[in-house]
Amino acid sequence: MGLVQFEDGNVIYYPYVPSASAGYVFMVLFGLVTLVHAVLMFKTRTWYFIPMILGGICETFGYYGRGWAGNEPNRPGPFMLQLMLILVGPVFIAATIYVTLGRYKQMMLNEPKRRCSPTSFFVLTDIISFCTQIGGSLVQVTGDLKIMKIGDKVVLGGLIFQLCVMAVFLALVVRFYRLAYRTILLRGRWRWAVIMLAVSIVVIWVRNLVRVIEFGQGFHGFVSQNESMLYIFDAFPMISVMILFIIFHPRFVKPSVDRSKA
Hints:
By secondary structure, the protein is mainly α. It is built from eight helices and two strands; from the N terminus they run ββαααααααα. It is found in: Membrane.
């Protein structure tokens, strides 16, 4: 276990030389998408999209770290930058997804705002996941094998915990869709918007599962040994989720309510 390797007293951060071009390409993509989200947030006053923007910033600078590591693969700075930020970026994005479901409930089913709600619970679990993942990743370059193994287990625990929480949240999204389907007329974009929530959660769930496998297998595992796995199961899925939230932005979802059904 462990995402770095010690050989002859030297630390090896990657089993390959990271692709600088791929890192910088995704840095630009995440930067542009994050900028669009920031403009939409100010234009529509959807302030609960701040975590989405923070997640995009994490992804942007995380892939800057990947590009930097392509030129200097033996430096700890770019390794820690990409490890921490790419690891925790989806945690912020998930927080926006959790809040969005609560907003849909208020918009479509006229549910009142509550201080203690399922949304608050999921945001709290997101904070726990963030703390465990950032804490576990910080010790990856300490040089103390015992501490590093503990850090691996902490990150694994945070990822597995997030997998369980997301499975529960997906069940709530499906339940909400069925309830809204019986209440709302079949026109408008609301159905696709709710489906987008479910798809986003599934995408992040699969991404976290691959990360669990990566930390479980360690430096010599298949996931760690193949750089393409990062881009196929992390970079591309997360940029897709952010783009989906631009296409189906909650501010533009205006369902027509059939009061007779209600």
